Amino acid sequence: MIVVLKPHATDAHIESVLAVATALKLKAHLSKGVERTVIGILGVSADKETLMAQFAQLEHVEHVVPISRSYKLVSKEARPESTIVRLANGATFGGSEVTVCAGPCSVESREQVMETAAGVAASGARVLRGGAFKPRTSPYAFQGLKLEGLKLLREAADAHGLAVVTEVLDVRDVADVAQYADMLQIGARNMQNFTLLQEVGNIHKPVLLKRGISATIEEWLMAAEYIVVAGNHEVVLCERGIRSYDPMTRNVLDLSAIPLVKSLTHLPVVVDPSHGTGARLLVAPMALAGVAAGADGLLIEVHPNPAVALSDGPQSLTLPLFADLMQKLGRVAEAVGRTV
Ligand code: PEP
Ligand code: MN
Fold this sequence. Notes:
Low-confidence stretches: none
Structural class: alpha/beta
Strand content: 15-25%
Bound molecules: phosphoenolpyruvate, manganese (II) ion
Helix content: 25-40%
Number of strands: 14
Strand order of the largest sheet: 7-8-9-10-11-12-13-14
Order of helices and strands: EHEEHEEEEHEHEHEHEHEHEHHEH
Mean pLDDT: 95
């Protein structure tokens, strides 16, 4: 259940709600919004009505709402207003801006990441993406430059006012990745790595949570719940396609997930049409469609020379193709009342 406090509730009023929860051995989860403070009460098993009445009678409690969903804190019931996730350079997800993250699949060299950062920044991207720790199907494939890759991303991003988003594959690397990145990506293959989710829930940096390769929407939201309940509210969801039977596309980009998820959660949602399709030809149309469908941002793979990319060359845009997409994106964003 969610205890919604009146607009001018003080810290003392918040404390009185927390004290009741503690006395009843329930877990309380505080969320201070711009207008309202809400407290999620978790672990309620029996006699919900009595408990709800008990909280409702406290001073400065406006009302108490039950949460019918399996995910609680990320549900729209818990927080009707959209969460806005802000990165260090001022880029936001969940506001009126459509924020574009762009860069190579893998960080390969200083020259490659510098050239890409300069190009994507000039076209209007706000966030540099790039993998330093790579989840590869084959153990013989390029596994990423690791710490060296993190340093290169930071240097390239700082040179162009970009923020950095990069994947963390393992709980042992969370501290290093958090030191260099502004946002930590949890990849599709790790969406249900619950210890990793808890670990990124313990830090104070935004998290980009990709949808698992065959995850249902509910499983995806439950994964976000793991991060939020651990204490990190800054989660952005990323639709990146789900596995299907047709090898013509790498995945099937589930565009319907965008408005659906936005109706279920207050968290921002971005779209990754690169992994969602696996084909350069399809990236721009699906990026535009994602924004038309209400996405709060995009994650796009861009490489200065995709033919020699060490991973995901076939789905990477060249810098001119990315510039062309950004031109079109401004017009689509405007048509749906957003800015880029
Ligand atoms: C990536 O963004 O480079 C990546 C590996 O994505 P996913 O986890 O969606 O496959
Ligand atoms: Mn990739």
